[in-house]
Write a structure and sequence with these properties.
By secondary structure, the chain is an alpha+beta fold. Helices cover about 50% and strands about 15% of the residues. It has 24 helices and 23 strands.
Length: about 850
C-alpha cells in the first residue's frame, strides 16, 4: 500500500488543506457570480438600461478605435515603414508650400545627400487610357522609377519590376500590373507575362507585361499599372519644372529633422545658384504615413476618438449613478449579510462581480453595435479616409473591447463598492430598510451628474461648431451658379489626333467645337462651353507671370497666377457677369492677337486702384526671367470678371488669368453644359455626342456641379455627422443621469417632503426646492463644460470653416438648450414630490 504522505515520481503532492482552500476560493467566486446573475435578473429594467448605456459607450469606442488603429496606429505594410518619408520643396518667402520636385533637384539630392539610403519618384496616378477588346477604358497608372519597388522592399508576385536602365529616356517598353488588375482583366492567367498592354495616352504605345505585384500593393494612391519612368516625357534639364513626387528611405539611425536639415542645406545652395527660377528654398521631409493621411484627417480622427471617450465616461458616470441608487435600496440586504457573519470584502467583491457581469453584457452588445457602425462608416467614409477599407473587428479592436469592458466594469463598480465599505450598517438596520443615504453619497451622485453634463456640453459645442461650419460651407458664394450645370471631363489624348497647330479636321479643338455646336442644338440647353480645367482640388498649379506696368515684385517674390483656357461661352455657362471690358469671341483664334481676361483678385494684387484694361500679361515659365523681352508678344487684358472660388472644402479665390481656349488648347478639357430642365437628362446626350465625334475617345466622366460641390464637402459633412451623433448620445445619457439623480433624491426624501408640507409648506415651495437642486447641478456642469470647451479651441480651429471655435452664439445656444433639457429632466421628479401625501409620509415614521 502506498504511503499517502510519500512522494512519487511526479514530485511532492499538494497538501489536502491547500487543495480544499483553492476549491473553497473558486467555489466562493462561483457562488458570488451566480448570486450576481440572479440579482441582475431580479431587476430586468435596471439591467437593460445599464447594458444599453454601456453598449452605446463601448460600441462607439470600439468602432472609432478600429478606424484609428487601422488608419493611424497600424504601420504601413512595408518593411521598416518608420524610415519611409516623402520629400517636397518649399519656399515660404515666395508663398509656396509643398511644391513637387524638379528632375535636376532630385538628381542633386540623390548625389549629394548622406542621410538617405535611397530615393525614388513617380508621376501620373490619374486615369490613363487602356485599349482593350471592349474599347478604351480608364485605369490608374503611374510612371515610376526603378528604385521605387526596391525602396519599398516589395517583391513582385510573379515576374520582375523595372531595371535601372529603364529609367533612361525611351528605354524598354515594359509594364508592371497590380494584383486586382490582373484578376479583373486577365482572370488570374499565370501566362500573362510577356503579353502586350496598350496605353493610349499622349500617343499609343504597347508595353510588355513583365511583373505582377502582390495583393494589396497599390502605391501610390490605388495605382493599378506602373510604367517605366523613361517614358514619362519629363525634360531632364528643366530645373524650373516641378513634376516629381518623391519618396525616400532614411538610413538607419537618421532622424527626420536631421535629414531635413541636410537636404534643406543642399536646396538652399541650389536656389542661390539659380536666383531667376522658382525653386524651393528648403525641403520638407515628412513621414510617409503622415503624408498619406494629411494633417487635418489625423486631427479629425483624434478629435473623434476624444469625443467617443467622453461618451464612454458619461456612460460610466450614468451607470455608477444608477448602481449607487440600487446599492442604497439594497443596503439593508448588505447589512443583514454582514450581521450574519459575511466579511466586508466578500460583499464588496459581490458588487464588483455584478458590475463586471454588466460590463461583459454591455461589451458583447457594444461589439454588435460596433460591427454595424463600422459597416456604415466604411460605406459612407471610404472616399474621405485613406486605408478605411482595411478596418476590421479582429485582433487589436477585440482586445480593446475586452479591456474597455473590464475597465468600465471596475470604474462604475468602484463607486457603490467604495460607499458600501464606508457605510455604517447599524444605522442601516435602524432605518428599517427605508433606503436613506448620507450627505456624502448625495454629493457623490451629484458630482457624477455634473461630470456628465460638462462632458456632454463639450461634445454638443463641438457638434454645433462643426454643423455651423458645414452650413456656412454649403452657403458660401463661390462666384458662379451651380444649379442646372453639368461638367463632363473629356480626354483627347488618345491617338488619331494630330498636333494642336495643324489646320486639319483631326485636331482635338475641331472635334471639341463640333461637340459644343451639336449640344447647343439640344432642347433645354442654355449654354455650352469648355475649359482646360476646373479648380477642383485647390492645388491648381500656378504659373510664373510678368505683368506690364504693375508694381515691381520684391527681390524674393515671383509673381504667379492661375491660368486656364476657356471657350467664349464659359462665363455665360457659369452665370458669371462681365465686370469690365469684353468677353472672348469666336474670332479669338490661334492666329488672332493674344488676349486675356483677369479676375478681381488679379486686379487687387497687381493693379490696386488702377485700370488693367489694355495692359499686358505674359507667362515667364520656370526657366525664364521675370519679364519677357517683347511685351508685344504677351496677352492683352481685355476684360475683368468676378472671382470664382475653388471647388474644395476651403473655398478661396486666387489671381486668375483666363485665355481663349483656341489660343491655348489642352487635350483634357472639361465640358460645361447649362440646362433649363433636369440637369441629369443631358448626360446621355453628352456621351452620345462624344462617341459620335470619335469612337476611340474614352467615355467622359459626367457630374452635376452640385454633385461636385457635395463631394467637396463630404469630409466636413462626415465629421459633423459623427460629432452630432455623439453629441446627441451624450445629451441623452446626461439627461437620463440627472433625471435618475433627482428621482432618487425625491424618493429618498419623501419623509422630509411630507414633514415640510405638514408644517405648512406649499406645493410650489417643494417644487422650487427640487428644481433648484437640479438646476444647481446643471449650471455647475454647464460652467465646467464651457471652460473645457474653451480649452479645446486650438484643436477645433483647424477643423472649422469661417467659424470661430469660441463663437458666442453657439456656446449660448447649446448651453441654454442643455439647461432647458436638464430642467425638463428635473420637472417630473419635482412634480412627483409635490404629490406626496403628508399623512402617508408621516405614517412611515
Amino acid at each position: 500500500m502506498n504511503d499517502p504522505n510519500s512522494a512519487d515520481d511526479d514530485g511532492p503532492k499538494t497538501p489536502p488543506s491547500t487543495r480544499r482552500g483553492r476549491a473553497s476560493w473558486f467555489e466562493g467566486w462561483w457562488q458570488d457570480a451566480r448570486y450576481g446573475a440572479r440579482a441582475l435578473a431580479r431587476s430586468p429594467a435596471l439591467t437593460a438600461v445599464v447594458v444599453l448605456t454601456l453598449a452605446i459607450g463601448i460600441g462607439a469606442n470600439t468602432a472609432i478605435f478600429s478606424v484609428v488603429n487601422a488608419v493611424l496606429l497600424r504601420p504601413l505594410p512595408y518593411p521598416e515603414p518608420d524610415r519611409l518619408v516623402t520629400l517636397k520643396e518649399e519656399n515660404l518667402r515666395r508663398g509656396f508650400e509643398q511644391l513637387r520636385v524638379t528632375v535636376p533637384d532630385f538628381q542633386d539630392w540623390r548625389e549629394q545627400n548622406h542621410a538617405l539610403e535611397d530615393l525614388a519618384f513617380w508621376t501620373g496616378g490619374e486615369g490613363f487610357n487602356l485599349v482593350g477588346p471592349q474599347g478604351v477604358e480608364k485605369a490608374n497608372c503611374a510612371y515610376a522609377s526603378a528604385s521605387l519597388f526596391h525602396l519599398l522592399r516589395v517583391n513582385p508576385l510573379r515576374g520582375r519590376t523595372f531595371l535601372p536602365a529603364e529609367d533612361e529616356s525611351q528605354g524598354a517598353q515594359v509594364a508592371v500590373i497590380g494584383y486586382d488588375f490582373w484578376r479583373r482583366h486577365y482572370a488570374g492567367d499565370t501566362n500573362v507575362l510577356g503579353r502586350r498592354l496598350t496605353v493610349d495616352t499622349y500617343g499609343r504605345r504597347d508595353y510588355q507585361i513583365v511583373g505582377i505585384m502582390p495583393p494589396g500593393f497599390a502605391f501610390p494612391e490605388r495605382t493599378e499599372v506602373w510604367l517605366p519612368a523613361g517614358w514619362n516625357g519629363l525634360p531632364p534639364n528643366r530645373r524650373g519644372a516641378h513634376w516629381l513626387e518623391v519618396i525616400a528611405r532614411l538610413k538607419p539611425g537618421v532622424s527626420v529633422p536631421a535629414a531635413q536639415a541636410e537636404l534643406s542645406g543642399i536646396q538652399a545652395r541650389i536656389e542661390r545658384e539659380h536666383p531667376d527660377l522658382l525653386l524651393g528654398s528648403n525641403v520638407v521631409v515628412e513621414p510617409l504615413l503622415a503624408a498619406t493621411l494629411g494633417r487635418n484627417l489625423r486631427l479629425a480622427l483624434e478629435a473623434l476618438w476624444g469625443a467617443v471617450s467622453c461618451v464612454l465616461l458619461i456612460a460610466c458616470a450614468n451607470v455608477a449613478n444608477l448602481l449607487l441608487g440600487q446599492a442604497a435600496a439594497r443596503q439593508t440586504e448588505f447589512a443583514v449579510r454582514l450581521a450574519l457573519g459575511a466579511r466586508p470584502g466578500r460583499v464588496v467583491r459581490q458588487l464588483l462581480l455584478e458590475s463586471l457581469l454588466l460590463a461583459l453584457l454591455g461589451g458583447l452588445a457594444g461589439l454588435a453595435l460596433a460591427w454595424a457602425g463600422l459597416r456604415v462608416l466604411i460605406a459612407t467614409g471610404s472616399s474621405q479616409i485613406p486605408r478605411l477599407a482595411e478596418v476590421h473587428l479582429a485582433g487589436a479592436p477585440l482586445a480593446f473591447t475586452l479591456l474597455v469592458s473590464a475597465a468600465t466594469g471596475l470604474i462604475f463598480g468602484l463607486a457603490p463598492a467604495w460607499r458600501l465599505a464606508r457605510r455604517d450598517f447599524n444605522e442601516a438596520l435602524k432605518d428599517g430598510g427605508r433606503g436613506g443615504v448620507s450627505r456624502r453619497e448625495r454629493h457623490l451622485r451629484g458630482a457624477l451628474a455634473v461630470a456628465e453634463i460638462a462632458l456632454s456640453l463639450v461634445l454638443l459645442i463641438a457638434a454645433g461648431l462643426m454643423s455651423q461650419s458645414l452650413l456656412r460651407l454649403s452657403r458660401v458664394d463661390r462666384g458662379f451658379q451651380p444649379e442646372q450645370l453639368v461638367a463632363a471631363d473629356l480626354d483627347f489624348s488618345v491617338s488619331g489626333f494630330t498636333t494642336w497647330v495643324e489646320a486639319t479636321p483631326t485636331r482635338p479643338q475641331v472635334t471639341l467645337q463640333s461637340v459644343i455646336d451639336r449640344l447647343r442644338a439640344y432642347p433645354g440647353v442654355g449654354a455650352v462651353a469648355a475649359a482646360s480645367r476646373l479648380p477642383r482640388d485647390g492645388a491648381t498649379p500656378t504659373q510664373p507671370i510678368a505683368v506690364e506696368n504693375s508694381s515691381p515684385p520684391s527681390a524674393a517674390e515671383f509673381p504667379t497666377s492661375g491660368f486656364q483656357g476657356v471657350t467664349p461661352d464659359y462665363f455665360r455657362a457659369l452665370g458669371v457677369p462681365l465686370r469690365q471690358g469684353r468677353a472672348f469671341t469666336d474670332r479669338d483664334t490661334l492666329d488672332a492677337p493674344r488676349v486675356a481676361i483677369v479676375n478681381e483678385s488679379f486686379i487687387r494684387r497687381f493693379f490696386p486702384g488702377g485700370n488693367a484694361i489694355g495692359h499686358h500679361v505674359a507667362l515667364t515659365g520656370g526657366n525664364n526671367t521675370r519679364s519677357p523681352n517683347n511685351w508685344s508678344a504677351a496677352m492683352e487684358i481685355v476684360g475683368i470678371v468676378p472671382d470664382i472660388k475653388n471647388l474644395t472644402a476651403r473655398p478661396e479665390a486666387e489671381p486668375e488669368v483666363y485665355v481663349p481656349f483656341w489660343q491655348w488648347p489642352m487635350q483634357s478639357p472639361t465640358l460645361l453644359v447649362r440646362t433649363f430642365a433636369n440637369s441629369g437628362a443631358i448626360a446621355p446626350a453628352i456621351r452620345a455626342e462624344v462617341s459620335a465625334a470619335n469612337r476611340n475617345l474614352p467615355p467622359p466622366r459626367i457630374q452635376t456641379m452640385n454633385g461636385i460641390l457635395s463631394d467637396a464637402a463630404a469630409q466636413p459633412r462626415f465629421q459633423a455627422l459623427l460629432a452630432s451623433l455623439f453629441g446627441f448620445i451624450a445629451l441623452t445619457l446626461a439627461i437620463v443621469g440627472i433625471y435618475g439623480v433627482m428621482a432618487s433624491a425625491v424618493a429618498q426624501r419623501t419623509r422630509e417632503m411630507g414633514i415640510r408640507m405638514a408644517l405648512g409648506a406649499q406645493r410650489w415651495h417643494v417644487l422650487a426646492l427640487v428644481l433648484a437642486e437640479g438646476m444647481r447641478l446643471a449650471l455647475v456642469g454647464v460652467g465646467l463644460g464651457i471652460a473645457a470647451a474653451l480649452a479645446a479651441t486650438r484643436v477645433m480651429a483647424r477643423l472649422l470653416y469661417e467659424t470661430t471655435p469660441t463663437d458666442p452664439a453657439t456656446y449660448a445656444l447649446i448651453s441654454l438648450t442643455l439647461v432647458a433639457c436638464a430642467l425638463g429632466a428635473c420637472w417630473l421628479p419635482a412634480r412627483r414630490a409635490t404629490k406626496v401625501d403628508p399623512l402617508v409620509a408621516l405614517r412611515c415614521e
